[in-house]
Amino acid sequence: MQAGLDALRFRVFDPMEVLPEGGGPLKLRAPLQRRPLAALLAGAGRAVSVDTLTDAIWTELPPDQARKALLECLHRLRRNLGEPYRINLEHAGYRTGIRSTSNQPAVGRANLPWRHG
User: Fold this and answer.
1) Domain locations in the chain?
2) Are 104 and 112 contacting, i.e. CB atoms less than 8 angstroms apart?
């Protein structure tokens, strides 16, 4: 299910939601999808390390197959968010194509619209 729309609104506080303009919320089924998305949004504009994403998902000792599970989570997020909001692998970690449309500090923009680019 791709967003396919120009803008998304991210609500990162409970309950976490991704709201396309003019549409219903996208389905982020499990904490394994919501937690890495929250970490990527907090680092919007910067690469987020695999270690940071792993820590976001598993608060205790990660399982033996943590990297594989993380890659599966990121694959599902890519599919749900769609191409304009692509999650890309870089040398330092993963970065989203999401940027805030607000000049407010990160804490103040938790419920503001974001656009790709």
Assistant:
1) 7-109
2) yes
Q: Alpha-carbon distance 92 to 109, whole Å?
A: 25
- Burial class of residue 76, CB neighbours in 10 A (0-12, 13-18, 19+): middle
d(CA 13, CA 46): 21
How does pLDDT run across 8-61, given as a tens digit for each residue?
777 777 677 787 777 777 777 777 788 888 888 888 778 999 999 999 888 888
Q: Hey, what amino acid is at 99?
A: R
Architecture of the domain whose range is 7-109: Orthogonal Bundle (1.10)
Residue 117: which residues within 8 A CB-CB, separation 6 or more? 84, 97, 99
